[in-house]
Amino acid sequence: MPRIRTTRTKKPPEGYEDIESILDDYAKKMRDAENESHEGKRKAESLWPIMRISHTRSRYIYELYYKREAITKELYDWLLKEGYADANLIAKWKKTGYEKLCCLRCIQTKDMNYQGSTCICRVPKAQVRSGTVVECVHCGKCLVSLFLVCD
Known about the structure:
Oligomer: single chain
Number of helices: 4
GO cellular component, one term: spliceosomal complex
Helix content: 25-40%
Distance between the termini: 64 Å
Low-confidence stretches: 145-151
Organism: Suillus placidus
Radius of gyration: 19 Å
Keywords: Coiled coil, Nucleus
Shape: globular
Main location: nucleus
Strand content: under 5%
């Protein structure tokens, strides 16, 4: 028989009280985004607000630990274990060239229209035709090119 999960979890580490209100705000925003009406939206478009909130929450925790050094390693590990942040996305942010990555789906080549290519939100703005507005299918990030590109 599988082990039955109970609601009892390990007590949060010291310092959690300082960021608890902000994480609760993210949880409220996430609930609102999940309960939002999906009528008139494409299938992928209904997930964009959820992905944006998840991204900003993960980015907040990443910056608290790596940039501002405001939380301890113990608290950071606990937040990742409890699912407050996406550990795989944070691992990519630590690598060069991936600092502004919006989601992991944008670097997977199998989900693209042309096999082996990259997502449009990963292409530098200077390489997109002038005056075009391109929207990422996975995360909804808009890319507007204002530069003139020579063919």
